[in-house]
Amino acid sequence: RKLPCSVAACMYRHWRPGPRTFRAKAGSRRMARAAEDVRQCIQGCLYLRQELLQEAKEPARAVLPLAIYLVGFSELAQWIAGVERIAVFKLDMVAGVPSVICGLTCFKWGLRKGLMPLGEQLGEKLPERMGQVGVSVVCFALAIGLTFAEPAIGALQEAATLLDGERAPLLSSIFGSPKCLFFLVLAIGIGVGVAAVSGSLRLLHDWNMKRMIVWALVPCLLATAFCSCVSEELSSVVGLAWDGGAVTTGPVTVPVVIALGIGLASSALRKSNPDEVELADTPLEGYLAPGAQGEGKHSLIQPPKADGDELKGFGIVTFASLWPVLGVLLLGMALSLQPHLDSAGPVQREAAAPDDHVPGKPEIVLAATSVGPLALGLWALQRWVIAEPLPNPGEVALGLLFVFFGLVLFNLGLNFGLLPLGNASGERLASSYEACSLSGRPHTGLALVL
Questions:
Q1: How many beta carbons lie within 10 A of that of residue 363, not counting itself?
Q2: Does residue 102 carry a pLDDT above 90?
C-alpha cells in the first residue's frame, strides 16, 4: 500500500519544477505575448498603410492634374503671347502639392474613422434622449463648430490677401479686421446651423424638400438683387456670399452632416415603422404573407418601406449651401451701415506671403483651434447625453488625431503650394493677355483667358 505513495513522492522530488523553471515559463509567456503584440502592431500598420494609399488616390487625381495644368498652361500662354518667360515657380510651390495630397488623405481617413461614427451615433440616439428641441440645439451648435473647422474657410481667408483695398473697401475691411473676420465665419456658421436645424426637422416630420428649397432660395435671390442694385459697395459682397455658401460643402461639413442626417433618418424610420406589429392594434390584411389567408395560420411580415426612405438622410447639404449666402449678405448690409468702417478705410492685413511666413506654428494653432473644440463638444455629447460606449474608441481617437495632422499638412500645402501657384499662374495669364492686346491680338488674349 505504501509503494505507490513512495514512488510518487520520489518522482515529485526528482521532477518538481524549481523557482527558475517557473520564472523561465513566465518569461517565455511574456515573450510570447510581446511577440503577439508586435505581430498585431505590424499587421495594423500594414493595414493602415493600405487604407491610406487607397484613400490618397482621389486627392492625387484632383490636385496633381490641377497643378500640372496651371504650370503648363501658363507657360503655353506666355509662349503664344511672345512674353519673355521668367521663372516664378519656386520649389516651395512644388513641395506644397504633395503636402496638400497627404493632408487631405489623412484628413479624409480621420473623418471616416473618427468624426463620422460620432455624427451617425448622435443622429440615431439624440431624438430618443433629448427630443426635437434638443436635436435642434445640438445640430445648430455642431454646424457652427464644423464651419470653424472647415479647411476651405481658411483657404477663403488666405485668398483674401490678394484683395485691392481701393476697389473693394468693404471686403478689405471685413478681411482686414480680426473682429469682422470672426463675424464673417460666424455668419457662415449660423447659416449652416439654420440649414442643419431645418434639415433635421424635415427628417423628423417628413416635410417636402422641394418647398423647403424654394423657401431657402427665394430670400437668397431677393437679398442678392437688393445688394446688387443698391450700391456698388454692397455688390462686392455678393460674390463673397455665394463663395461662402460654396466653401461650406467642404471635407469636414459634408461627411459629418450626411452622417448626422443618415442617423436621424434611420431613427425616424424606426419610429414610423416599428419592428413588431401588434395583432390587437393593426389589421392583419396587407401584412399576411401570400397564401396564409384562410388557412388558420397567420404569418406576419414587415410592412413595405416607402420609396426613398433610405435616401432621406441626404439633402441637408443643399440647405447648407443656401442659408450661409443669406447670412453673409445680411452681415454685409449691417457692416455697410457702420460709419467707422468707411471713415477709417480698409484695414490692411499682415503680409501672408510664403517668403515671410514661418511654417509650422500658424498651421498647428489653426488646426488645434478648429478641431479641438469640435472634438471636445462631440465627446461631451457622447459622454453625458448619449451615455453609451463607442464601438471602437481607440479607432475614433486615432481618427481625430489624423484629422488634426491632416489639417496641419493641408494648411501648409495650401499656404506654400496651391495659393502661390494659383497667384503666379494668374499673374502670368494676365501679362499674356496684356501682351496680346498691345500687339493687336486681343481676341487671342481673350481666348487664352477664357
A1: 23
A2: yes
Radius of gyration of the chain (CA): 31
CA atoms of 426 and 381, how far apart (whole Å) = 46
d(CA 323, CA 342): 27
Q: 208 to each of 211, 268, 312, 322, how far by Cα in Å?
A: 6, 15, 11, 17
Which conformational region is residue 82 in: left (phi greater than 0), alpha (psi within -120 to 50 degrees), or beta? left
Q: pLDDT tens-digit profile of 321-348? A: 889 999 999 998 988 887 655 434 444 4
Cell of 356: 515671410
Cβ 8 vs Cβ 16: under 8 Å: no
Model confidence, pTM: 0.68
Cβ neighbours of 46 (radius 10 Å): 10
Reported confidence tier of residue 85, pLDDT bands at 50, 70, 90: low
Query: Do residues 149 and 371 touch, judged by C-beta distance below 8 A?
Result: yes
Closest to 107 (Cα-Cα) out of 355, 334, 414, 345:
414
| 444: three-class secondary structure by DSSP | helix
In degrees rounded to 5, what are phi and psi of residue 300? Answer: -80, 140
What does the alpha-carbon distance between residue 101 and residue 250 come to, in Å, rounded to a whole number? 15
Instruction: Please report where in the chains the cell 451617425 appears, as a residue.
Output: 120
Write out the three cell numbers for 154: 481658411
Mean pLDDT of 258-287: 57
**Which residue's entry shows cell 446688387?**
228
Grid cell at residue 35: 511577440
Q: Classify 27 as helix, strand or coil.
A: helix
**Per-residue pLDDT reduced to its tens digit, 358-408:** 667 778 887 887 788 778 888 888 888 887 777 788 888 898 899 899 989
At position 425, the amino acid (one-letter code) is S
pLDDT in tens, 294-318: 444 444 334 444 444 445 556 677 8
Are 291 and 230 a contacting pair, CB within 8 Å?
no
Report the C-alpha gap between 134 and 339 in whole angstroms.
40
At position 234, the amino acid (one-letter code) is L
Residue 330, CB half-sphere, CA atoms under 13 Å: how many?
14
